[in-house]
């Protein structure tokens, strides 16, 4: 399988989601033997790369947003996500961050290393927390301020240096909506390649405060109770979509 990315877009057939073969790759100036393997010494026919943002898709193919393709990719969504993260890692670590020497691939593991100073670089993973706050039969959903057509979802944020996941949950909730929470319960996790997150999801019980949004982060945050008409929520393929649907108030349905 050949994964060719242009920014956050994946090259697939215009009809269907078939990935390009070697001939199509060559039309884009991509040689199979120069592509990055998705795994080290495992399934060597899974390869990935990034190409220039102004590259045009060959006839019969199109670049489509990876996020929009997740539901169509099915079981291959996880592989596509990994391929994107590996390609992005290679693209952004061409030179040593200490001495600027071109990096080279290690032979014994998935690693880039500097031949001059010995710096090792591994694929980046950024832990992020997600939390769905519950108050009796109500749940709190919020819409992010940075996206014009954002869906309503659980709160989320990156873990900062020196924090535990639990610390990050309490800090983000207080910063974004001004609330206190308790009784954190682990829901699940999901690799989220936008661009290199590991989303770790919890539910939590409301423990005080009035909703006060952080306007540069949150456009709106509302409680939804039994029988409420829900706004658009995340797709089922995302951990946010699964967590919200698993905790819907009585008499409330979501597509």
Task: Please tell me about this protein's structure.
The chain has 255 residues and is of the alpha+beta class. The chain has helices at 22-27, 66-73, 77-92, 165-177, 239-246, and strands at residues 2-6, 9-13, 36-37, 47-50, 61-65, 104-105, 112-113, 120-121, 126-135, 138-144, 152-153, 155-158, 181-192, 197-206, 218-224. The two termini are 33 Å apart.
Q: Which H/E pattern describes the elements?
A: EEHEEEHHEEEEEEEHEEEH
Reported for the largest beta sheet, the result is:
7 strands, mixed
Number of helices: 5
From the N-terminal CA to the C-terminal CA, the straight-line distance is: 33 Å
Number of strands: 15
Low-confidence stretches are none
Strand residue content = 25-35%
Enzyme class: hydrolase
Organism: Bordetella genomosp. 1
Family: Belongs to the Nudix hydrolase family. NudC subfamily.
Domain Nudix hydrolase: 123-248
Please render the helix and strand layout as text:
Layout: E1 2-6, E2 9-13, H1 22-27, E3 36-37, E4 47-50, E5 61-65, H2 66-73, H3 77-92, E6 104-105, E7 112-113, E8 120-121, E9 126-135, E10 138-144, E11 152-153, E12 155-158, H4 165-177, E13 181-192, E14 197-206, E15 218-224, H5 239-246
Parallel strand pairs: 1-4, 9-14
Antiparallel strand pairs: 1-2, 2-5, 3-4, 6-7, 7-8, 9-10, 9-12, 10-11, 10-15, 13-14
Name the features:
alpha+beta, seven-stranded mixed sheet, 5 helices, 20% helix, five-stranded mixed sheet, globular, 31% strand, 255 residues
């Amino acid at each position: 399988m050949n994964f060719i990315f242009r920014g956050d877009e994946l090259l697939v057939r215009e009809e269907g989601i078939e990935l390009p073969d070697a001939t199509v790759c060559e039309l884009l100036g991509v040689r199979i033997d120069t592509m990055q393997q998705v795994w080290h010494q495992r399934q060597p026919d899974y390869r990935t790369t990034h190409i220039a943002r102004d590259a045009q898709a060959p006839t019969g193919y199109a670049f489509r947003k990876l996020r929009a393709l997740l539901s169509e990719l099915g079981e291959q969504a996880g592989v596509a996500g990994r391929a994107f993260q590996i390609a992005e890692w290679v693209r952004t670590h061409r030179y040593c961050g200490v001495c600027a020497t071109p990096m080279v691939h290690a032979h014994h593991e998935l690693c880039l290393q500097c031949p001059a100073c010995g710096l090792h670089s591994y694929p980046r993973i950024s832990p992020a927390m997600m939390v769905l706050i519950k108050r009796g039969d109500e749940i709190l959903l919020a819409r992010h301020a940075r996206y014009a057509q954002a869906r309503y979802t659980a709160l989320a944020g990156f873990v900062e240096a020196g924090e535990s996941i639990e610390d990050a949950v309490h800090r983000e909730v207080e910063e974004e909506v001004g609330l206190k929470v308790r009784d954190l319960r682990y829901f699940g996790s999901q690799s989220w390649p936008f661009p290199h997150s590991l989303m770790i999801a919890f539910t939590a019980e409301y423990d005080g405060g009035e909703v006060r949004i952080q306007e540069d982060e949150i456009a709106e945050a509302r409680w939804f109770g039994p029988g409420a008409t829900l706004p658009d929520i995340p797709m089922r393929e995302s951990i946010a979509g699964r967590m919200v649907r698993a905790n819907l108030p009585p008499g409330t349905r979501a597509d």
